[in-house]
Amino acid sequence: METATRIDNRKGNLFEFGNLQLAEGQRKSFTINCQFAKRARDAGVHVGLCSVPEGQHNFILWASRVLEVANAYNRGDPFAPGCSPAMPHLKTIACLANSRKLSGRCVAGKEISATCQVGAWIRPVSSRPKQELQPNERRYVNATEPQLLDKIEISFEAPVPHEYQVENHLIDPTVRWVKTGTITWHNLDNATDPFNGSLWIDGYSSYNGLNDRIPHAQAQALTSSLKLIETENLIVTVAMEGIRPKSAARAHFSLGGRNYAFGVTDPVAAACYLSHGEGDYVVGVARLCISIGEPYEGYCYKLVAGIITP
After folding, report:
1. Which H or E run contains 304?
2. Are 259 and 250 in contact (CB under 8 A)?
3. How far apart are CA 124 and CA 19, in angstroms?
4. Residue 89: per-residue pLDDT
5. Each residue of 139-182: pLDDT tens digit?
């Protein structure tokens, strides 16, 4: 047996449980748990580690937002009604969008492994009615914004698919996001989504767009709302749009012989082109994160949420 002593002496929100007896084979797990505990503590989350009865897991590490959970564990009643521990559900994504949405942002990316193998789409969302993310929910500990191609470790509470936005996952708002690195253009070589002749449903266009919207009734039957596509002929136009005209950026491109013109909600790219004034700006080869937004006046609009260039 080996004794491990907690050394923080109840600093801040960290609660101590005294000495822990560690048998052979438990040390590696304890080290990993302590690494996670440090990250949780640095984010200002209540953290604790305690033993549970024989036959269960040797130790449970929990990070919760309420003191009652700690009290339940101290009473030896970790599964008391209303006091279930918040079990972290960590995923790492490659950020492919951090776009404007109402007064907040819509972040999206694909799950990515330590060896940069790219997996399924994930859209981190909040519990608000429109699910937008506020600054304190998406920024890193140093208060910077996630950038395209960042690798981000995020703690989620649960998947929350909503109509066609099946990629939505509810974030744990008490845990800060962690940037674990960045990826390159070439890491996405095998990450683009197949084009099957249309971007979901084509044939419906807004006044300034082309194939850029879907009737809400038809969109509800879709099984995805995010795509990463590559085009060779992207042109971003800046022009006056809307009933109350204001300058807007719009992405024009073709895919499989079909033409598209979508509004740009990537704030970094849009600001860059808007700063140059009205005109057509030839980009050429680019990978675009296309997202279907919330319903608006009976339609769901396809948006360029992220522009990635070589």
Report:
1. strand 299-308
2. no
3. 38
4. 85
5. 999 999 999 999 999 999 999 999 999 999 999 999 999 999 99
Residues of the chain above pLDDT 70, percent: 72
Q: Any residues with CB less than 8 A from the CB of 55 and at least 6 apart, and which?
A: none
Place of tokens 């279907």: 292
Q: Which of 265, 309, 277 is nearest to 132 (CA)?
A: 265
Do residues 293 and 241 make contact, with C-beta atoms less than 8 angstroms apart? no
Equal CATH topology for 89-188 and 213-308: yes
Class of domain 89-188: mainly beta
Which tokens belong to 131?
Answer: 């699910």
Total residues found in the chain within this entry: 310
Would you state the pLDDT for residue 5?
34
Q: Is 294 exposed, middle or buried (CB count within 10 Å of its CB: 0-12, 13-18, 19+)? A: middle
Spacing of C-alpha 287 from chain mean position: 18
Per-residue pLDDT band for 87 (boundaries 50, 70, 90) equals: low
Q: State both tokens at 194.
A: 């197949």
Specify whether the CB–CB gap between 88 and 63 falls below 8 A. Answer: yes
Give the range among 40-54, 117-131, 234-248 with minimum mean pLDDT. Answer: 40-54
Residues 6+ positions from 261 with CB-CB distance below 8 Å = 205, 208, 209, 210, 211, 212, 250, 251, 252
Decide if 22 contacts 48 (C-beta within 8 A).
no
What is the domain partition of the chain in residue ranges? 2-74, 89-188, 213-308
Q: How far is CA 185 from CA 70, 230, 310, in A?
A: 45, 11, 6
- Indicate the SS3 state at residue 234: strand
Distance (Å, rounded) from C-alpha 307 to C-alpha 9? 48
Q: Which CATH architecture has domain 213-308?
A: Beta Barrel (2.40)
User: Tokens in use for 202?
Assistant: 């084509």
| Contact predicate 105/132, CB 8 Å | yes
Distance CA 147, CA 15 (A): 35
**Where is 82: in which H helix or E strand?**
none
Contact 168, 159 (CB under 8 A): yes
